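Late entry, written up from scratch paper. The run itself happened at the end of the previous shift, but nothing got recorded in the book at the time, so transcribing now.
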Amino acid sequence: MPVADRDEDVSRVVAVALCLLLAGCGTAPSTGSDDRPTATTVTPAPVPDQPTAATDAVSPAVALAAEPTCERPPERVVAIQLAALRAENRTAGVETAWRFTAPASRKRVGSLSTFRDLLETAYGELLNATEVAYGPVIVIDDEAQREVEARSADGDGTVFRWVLERQVGGRYDGCWMTTRITRERDREAGPNR
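Output as recorded:
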């Protein structure tokens, strides 16, 4: 093989490797047996921390069709429930939120109709928000929490806290499911928000 062709092939390989590294898809190649990487580079999926429109986190169509699976992290469960609750088809949205509610919590509430009544009377700001902002997810062992601020058209906001637990035993063993949603505080729109 002529030297010019070999140099061109080496240049191509270096260019491809450099592109992969810059894209966050790997680690630098090892130059010896002692140069093993200490951690794997992973490109994380973005989790919204800024105000988002109702359909930005999860589309209503995706949310309404979703079923609980153990592959979903807690932040995805929150996004699915929130998108479902805010979908135009309120009945289907409440049914989806019910599916992602932990079995012990469903038993405490009693029935889907009681759950629907509870949501409509105590969580109206959440159901009718024009935008939402997600707080960080806090996971400690098998419990996760995430605050969500639901904002109205006039800018007022209400903060709700989702609490999820990884289920133990039964049909949903290992799945993150919501155990409760609590109303934390109200915020009025103003210059110091």
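Residues 9 and 187 are 61 Å apart (CA to CA).
(Scratch paper discarded after transcription.)
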